[in-house]
Each structure stands twice: as structure tokens, then as C-alpha cells.
Amino acid sequence: MVFRVLCRVGQRQRRSFAQVVDGGFVAPKLKTLEDPMVGKHLVTSETVARSEVLFKVDLTVEDGRLLRDPNMYSLQVSEHQHLDLQKVPDDKGGIARFLSHLDEPNLKPVITDESVTFSAVRKLEPGEELGFHYCTTEWSMASPFECAKDGQSIQGFVYLDAETQDILKKKELLAAHIQRMASKLE
Ligand SMILES: C[S@@+](CC[C@H](N)C(=O)[O-])C[C@H]1O[C@@H](n2cnc3c(N)ncnc32)[C@H](O)[C@@H]1O
């Protein structure tokens, strides 16, 4: 009997941990906007504190969210794995897929074996477009495009000129897998 009660407590704890990691990872401080150049994108509707985590996605759930090949809505999480942000459940339809590419990013993705988090690199004011530098996680993108802000061609880290690669390295924005892949070329 005691054993069964302990098992039930254990199950409850496991379930609620899974909810914290995987469900409702959208902070209630965001709204979506749409414009002809960038498409749908996310904007802060309230102040966001420096280091505040806006999204957290569990990488350990085996539901097909990790792909071998990239797509327009995937985030590269290791040398051969791409997180399909269209497949990640949340209470607002997986809106992390609407994060923009920003040359001066206000979010930093942190990728571990277990999860990806996006946190604010500084205090954010209401009305700021949210995004990260796509080339800090993507080696070679499935859907290259021209940045609406500066016309730069965004195709992935490997296509950046050496100077831009170096700037991203020095700003400590590069994901570990991009650093590893870059060091193999040196
Ligand atoms: C992950 S999706 C982001 C959501 C997308 N805006 C939408 O409406 O579905 C990436 C795509 O958004 C667009 N995008 C993101 N950042 C951009 C930027 N800085 N300039 C122009 N287009 C951008 C590009 O079309 C890119 O292929």
C-alpha cells in the first residue's frame, strides 16, 4: 500500500515536471504581428527582464520533433538534428516558430541535450521585435532569405564572410555545434 502511494506521488511529480518543461512555454508577454517583409513575427507587449526565459522546449520528448534535415521552421540543435518548431506543442500553437532573424539579437538560444531555452540578452521594452541571429544556430539553411532590415543574405553560418563569423564568435553567441563545425574547417 505504502509502495503504491509512493509510486503515485512519483508519477505525479514526473507529470508535473514534464508540464513545466514542455507545456505553456510561451510567456504571457508577447503578441504576434504581421508585415509584408518579415511575415508573422513576435513583439513584446510588456517589459521583459534581462535573462528572462521566454521559451523553453524539451528535446527529450520522442514525438518526431527532431528532424534529420532542416526546414523553414526548424532550429538546428546539434550537428545532425533540427528541432521542428511546428511540432512543438504549446498553449498558443507553437509561436516560437515566429521568432525573427535579428542582426542585433535580443534573445539568445541556449541548447543542451535536454532543452532549448530562449532568454533575453538585455532588458526588453514593450514593442520590441523578438529574435535571434539565425546563423548562430544554423549551419546551412533550408530557406535562405534577405534580411528586411539590412538586405544581408541569411543562409547559415557557413555562408557568412570571415569577419561576420568572427564578430559572432567574439560576442559569444554561437551555439556549441556551430563552434564545433567551424573548428573542423579551420
Ligand atoms: C522561422 S520563420 C519565422 C516566421 C515567419 N516570419 C512566418 O511568417 O512564418 C523564418 C522566415 O521568416 C522570415 N524572416 C525572419 N526574419 C526575417 C528578417 N529579418 N527579414 C526578412 N524576413 C525574415 C523569412 O521568410 C524566414 O524564412
Describe this entry's structure for a reader.
- Pfam families: SET.
- It comes from Cladocopium goreaui.
- This is SET domain-containing protein.
- Residues 28-135 form the SET domain.
- With 186 residues, this protein is an alpha+beta fold.
- The protein has one domain (22-185): Beta Complex (Beta-clip-like), CATH 2.170.270.
- The chain is built from 3 helices and 12 strands, in the order αββββββββββββαα.
- The strands form 5 sheets. It has a 3-stranded antiparallel beta sheet. Strands 4-6-5 form a 3-stranded antiparallel beta sheet.
- The radius of gyration is 18 Å and the shape is globular.
- Bound molecules: S-adenosylmethionine.
- S-adenosylmethionine binds next to strand 2 and strand 7.
What is the CATH architecture annotation? Beta Complex
Question: What does the largest sheet look like?
Answer: 3 strands, antiparallel
What is the CATH top level name? Mainly Beta
Shape: globular
The separation of the N and C termini measures: 62 Å
- Helix content range of the residues, please? 10-25%
Order of helices and strands: HEEEEEEEEEEEEHH
Number of domains: 1
User: Helix segment count?
Assistant: 3
**Overall strand count:** 12
Whole-number mean pLDDT: 85
Radius of gyration: 18 Å
Assign the CATH topology. Answer: Beta-clip-like
CATH superfamily: SET domain
Structural class: alpha+beta
Structural key phrases:
186 residues, Beta-clip-like, binds S-adenosylmethionine
Q: What is the secondary structure topology, with strand pairs?
A:
Blueprint: H1 2-22, E1 30-35, E2 39-44, E3 53-58, E4 66-67, E5 74-78, E6 81-84, E7 100-101, E8 107-111, E9 115-120, E10 131-132, E11 145-146, E12 153-154, H2 162-170, H3 176-185
Parallel strand pairs: 7-10
Antiparallel strand pairs: 1-2, 3-9, 4-6, 5-6, 8-9, 11-12
